Amino acid sequence: xxxxxxxxxxxxxxxxxxxxxxxxxxxxxxxxxxxxxxxxxxxxxxxxxxxxxxxxxxxxxxxxxxxxxxxxxxxxxxxxxxxxxxxxxxxxxxxxxxxxxxxxxxxxxxxxxxxxxxxxxxxxxxxxxxxxxxxxxxxxxxxxxxxxxxxxxxxxxxxxxxxxxxxxxxxxxxxxxxxxxxxxxxxxxxxxxxxxxxxxxxxxxxxxxxxxxxxxxxxxxxxxxxxxxxxxxxxxxxxxxxxxxxxxxxxxxxxxxxxxxxxxxxxxxxxxxxxxxxxxx
Length: 281
Ligand SMILES: C[S@@+](CC[C@H](N)C(=O)[O-])C[C@H]1O[C@@H](n2cnc3c(N)ncnc32)[C@H](O)[C@@H]1O
Known about the structure:
The chain is built from three helices and 14 strands.
C-alpha cells in the first residue's frame, strides 16, 4: 500500500497526472485498485532550502517520500523508485537525475489501513509454525490480476534471489522440460483463508468440497504447487510458460518434473473438475 508524497515549489500537475502515476505503481506492484495514494504538496516560498529551486531557467524537480510496507523486496522497491523517477521526469519535463526520492518502510504493527493494523511480521508464531521458510526468488510476469483462467500462454521469469544463490543452484535444470514450482499465495489475506468446505469458486452448480479436496488459493498456509513448461535458464532467471502465479509471487521451491513421480495408477477425479478447468490453460 504505497503512499507517495511529493514536494515542490510548483503547482500540482493535476489530478489526472497523479492518477496516472498511481496507476503505474499499482500495475508494477500488482496491487488491487485504490491501494496507492499520491500527494502533491506545494511548498510556499521561504519554507524550504534547495538552491536549484531558485534558478529561474530550470524547471524544479520534486522531492518525494514513498512509504511502503517493509514486506516489499529490494527488487520491487528498486523498480518502484525507477518507475517514479521515469514517470515524473516525463510528466514534469525535468531531468531524471534531479529527482530525489526516499523510501520509508512502514513497519508491521505501525501501519493502519482501512481500519486494520498491519501485523505481518509481529504476530507471535502459532505453536508448531514453520518459521524458517525464505523465498528462493520471485515470479516476474505481466499478469497481475487474480482472475482464474487462461494461464496456458502466460510466460514468466522466476528470478532466484542473488543474495542466496548463484547460477550453480540451477545447473542441469535445463535438461528437463517441465518444472514443479512451490509458491506462496502472498495476495491472499490471512483472514480470507478457508478451513472447511465450500463450493469451488463459489459456484453453486458444483458440489461443496473441503478445502483439501480442491485447489483454491484461499487455503491454510496459502501454498500453491504448479507444473509448468521450462523455456530456458539464463543465469539466475528461469523462464517458464503456464505458471499460474501472479507477478511478485514469492517462490519457495523449484523442482524438475519427473514422470516417475507422477501417479502410477489411472487418475480418478469428479466431473466438476473438468468443468472448472475447461478454460484454465
Ligand atoms: C487456483 S490457484 C492454483 C494454483 C496451483 N496450480 C495449485 O494448484 O496450487 C491459482 C490461482 O491463484 C491466483 N494466484 C496466483 N498467484 C497468486 C498469489 N501470489 N497470491 C494470491 N493468489 C494468486 C490466481 O488467480 C490463479 O488463478
